[in-house]
Amino acid sequence: MTVAVLSWTAFVVLLGISVSAARPRRYSAPAQLQAARRAVRPWRNGAAISSEFTSAAVCLGLAGLSSASGGWHPAGVAGGFVIVLALVVAPLRRSRTYTLPDFAEWRLGSVPLRCLTTMLSLVIGMAFLVAQLHAAGVVVRLLTGMPAWAGWAALAAAGVAIALAGGTGSVTSVQASQYWLKLVIFVGVGVVLWAVWWHHLPSGDVTAFVAGLPDGLWEGAVGTSYGAADPSAAPAHAPAHAPAHAPAHAPAHAPAPAHAHAPDLAPAPQGGGDGMAGLLPGALMVLLACALGTMGLPHVIVRLHVALDGHEARRSIVAAQAMLALFCVVPPLYGVLSAVVARGGVMDEIVLLLPARMLPGPAGDLLTGLLAAGAFVAFLATACGVLSAVGGAISACVSRATGASVFRGAVLAVALTALALTMATDPSGSMPLMMLGFSLSAATLCPLLLLGIWWRRLTDAGVLAGAVAGGGVTAALVVCEQTGLNLGVPTSHPASVAVPLAFAVMVVISLVTPGRVPGGVGRMMARMHLPEPSERAGGHRSSPGADRSPSGRVPHTDDY
Amino acid sequence: MTARRVPVTRRRRVAGRPRGAFTPEGEAPDVGELVSRQLRQALATVAAALISLAGLPAVALWLRAPGAWVALTLAVQPVLVALAVHHLKRAERLER
């Protein structure tokens, strides 16, 4: 009960801090509501972007050690940021379209395409939202004993409130401050726990401790991180070997002694499963889906447009990537310690219960409360980012009228749908759901963006066919997996088939329909690829608002 | 009259387009060239990123050390950040 009270107090305090950073302002039009009035500087924007990725799974370290695809996720996303930086950021910012549906309509002049892209953004955003809600439910159930729906409801309400308070502008500042809050909390609590562990461990015991490292820990981690379709394929039969020369220094180097096992680790002759080499394609596919899927995530694209211009947008992405790299220390920090301290049991639950187990009494309660509040803030970051981005996309598609009520209605509808989906699904599906979001994004929005930005001969028919093929194959493979029909790597990692197929279909159909290449493609290419007039040279930035949106709708953000 | 205007445009094209001189309504003469240079640069960066990503599981497999992938996913982060910073510098130099 103390834990419950403490964690809720901490959460309310943190929420207060981050909302007070939001500085909600009054807006008259949804366009102004969605987009920040003032340009956000790269470091602040970068913090907001990386805040999105330090969400649920990554935060609690459940990604690192317990889930099949989580292990490679941070590396894949970091690679994805490099690809976004190289191929997408500056042209997309310079196209001056606000969302992916806007971009599709502007570039290819097709309204059906706009609706298809909106649907895809909705599905991808929904996968992320449901994962956040499930994680919040688990945290609340574990720590307070209250039913999981209390966590869903609290998260949904807070996310909607922040998204409605001020649109992307306030969401950006909330997320930027949340990034630093999370970093301080997670690293701080982690360091305290490691210090406690080190303090309680008599120095002579280190060798014995290392010898007693859980048998299945690293082997299991390696097995699952290769994306084994069958979790039992992990070699659980490797006996514990006392390493001859365990390093007796900092406990933070705990992974190092694992090298001592190396000579003894046979190449894993699993019975029913394939060998380690057979698991390689799975790992590669996880990396590929994350790397290509990052560019299609609706809440990342939105962030580009609060940057001042193409240069600043590029810098934002680099800043985001650097901060994300910093945060990647967190999962191993907890994952290793919880595997060491609390052997056996469900990993993601143990991470949260770790402080109470190591430090019985008020100190443990306090740390647990902080950890829970930090986790909740993380879920909130992703939830309100996705809500605001998807809500904006839908309101722009559903109604061309200008009115903040449409945006508000869309945000509410998205939140309610996500709640309903959360009720219908199982918490264990969070990570697969997020991976599905990445795969779908890689198979549909990624080819649209890459070809749309760099290839003049792309046509709307090509994009339509390619996106339908990529999305359809992904959906079919997911259904196959759910019904138990196993086709090997394709069923567990739909991206392996869907991404090449989507690219191929898009290119072929575009070449077949040369008459549908939109007019003025040269002007579009010039707008996307030529640097904007310099802010410093040209004084006040004064781009005409009307050229932002193709159909004469309200311009989004040009009057900074 | 028209004959007098042509040399002006041509002289500017030869001199190179100064930063900020592009007009949004017309396609500047060197867009195609700029795009292909940008694309070459971007593809080089993407290739480097993909190679380092694909190398991860391969190296983990080759090391056969349990837990190596934890260290590898951490070790690849600075590499990718360095790659991003390098690309940022090159891209900005190209557009200057």
UniProtKB/TrEMBL annotation, chain B:
Superkingdom to which the source organism belongs: Bacteria
Protein keywords: Membrane, Transmembrane, Transmembrane helix
Residues passing through the membrane, by range: 42-63, 69-88
Compositionally biased tracts (Basic residues): 7-16
Record bears the keyword Transmembrane helix: yes
Disordered: annotated segments: 1-28
Protein name: Uncharacterized protein
Organism expressing this protein natively: Nonomuraea glycinis
